[in-house]
Amino acid sequence: MNFNIIRAARAVYNVTNLENSRRFYIDALGFVETASDDEHIYLRGLEEHCHHSLVLKKALEPSVEVISYKVQSEADLDALAEFFMDKGMQTKWMQKGTQKAIGRTLRVQDISGLPVEFFAEMETVERLLQRYDLYRGARVQRIDHFNCAVEDVEKAYHFYINELGFACSEYTTSDDEKIWAAWLHRKPAVHDVAFMNGVGPRLHHVGFWLSDPMSVINTCDVLASMGYGANIERGPGRHGLSNAFFLYLRDPDGHRIELYNGDYLTSDPDFKPIRWDLDDPMRQTFWGHAAPDCWFNEASIVLDVHTEEKVATKEPKLEKKKPTIII
Q: Which residue numbers delimit the VOC domain (predicted)?
């Protein structure tokens, strides 16, 4: 392959009420508002130098417009366009100026039907990492990963590894050794994207990195004090898989985000992916508490990058089992 995908970089959530979203994401969670207008709010974490990592876009109903990866250069975008064309996958160019603060982007419905975007250029802004006077709520630092429900995990796994150059950190198999879930990365951490067996394509969540576990605990206190206790869906806790400390939240439109801290380095070329059996109790939350049913069954619908219509979902190829390892 002659392109270089760097990392998970941004998501565009369609939301129904920008003011409700502003109160949740900015006032409660402490995201930084880089810019806004009547139709959008552009958010970033405290350590991020890119203009935004999350766009909240006003719409009639909630959905996910796109999940985006940053690439090394503009030449990588052209190489990716050629790659997808050779695969018979229709692409869509978004020219510079059509989206705020970002250069030209390449959009495509990926092998699972997820709306994926690639870009090389985004305006830079001041990093606020050491502006501790601005820290509040969750003290969100940066975007970390996407987690997606797909009907055929093995198909997604092989495409992203063999065709797009991702590597696997951990995976779960069923009794017949079929891949039930997989955590794939480009940056040297546990994942940029995870795929799990489920009704799909849908986006389960976007994960954001926090500086320490106490930021997760502080988030719970802030949310409860502001009347958002019911928005805490799962956690706080520690994942068995990845060892990360976590908290899952639902925003006012039902979109799920994970606040996440404490995974590990995967940069060594001889790093061996960690296999988990689906029935292994150690795959569960490290402390043993189970996930609620809604965390397993519910996820955000995604849109077609060409028509902007909802993408139809399909039942998964493997048996649906309630997992406790989605991260």
A: 7-121, 142-262
Tell me the per-residue pLDDT of 17-72, one tens digit each, with 9 for 90 and over: 999 999 999 999 999 999 999 999 999 999 999 999 999 999 999 999 999 999 99
CB 207 within 8 A of CB 313: no
User: CATH: 3.70.10.10, 3.90.220.20, 3.10.180.10, 3.40.50.300. Which one for 138-297?
Assistant: 3.10.180.10
Q: Which amino acid type is present at position 205?
A: H
CB-count exposure of residue 113 (10 Å: 0-12, 13-18, 19+): buried
Which has the closest alpha carbon to 200: 152, 251, 250?
Answer: 152
Q: Give the span between the Cα atoms of 316 and 277, in whole angstroms.
A: 18
pTM: 0.96
Nearest of 175, 177, 195, 173 to residue 185 by alpha carbon: 195
Tell me the two tokens of residue 254. Answer: 């039902």
Q: Among 200, 206, 196, which residue's Cα sits nearest to residue 154?
A: 196
Neighbouring C-alpha atoms within 13 Å toward the C-beta of 218: 15
Q: b/e map of 68-77 (b: 16 or more CB within 10 Å)?
A: bbbbeeeebb
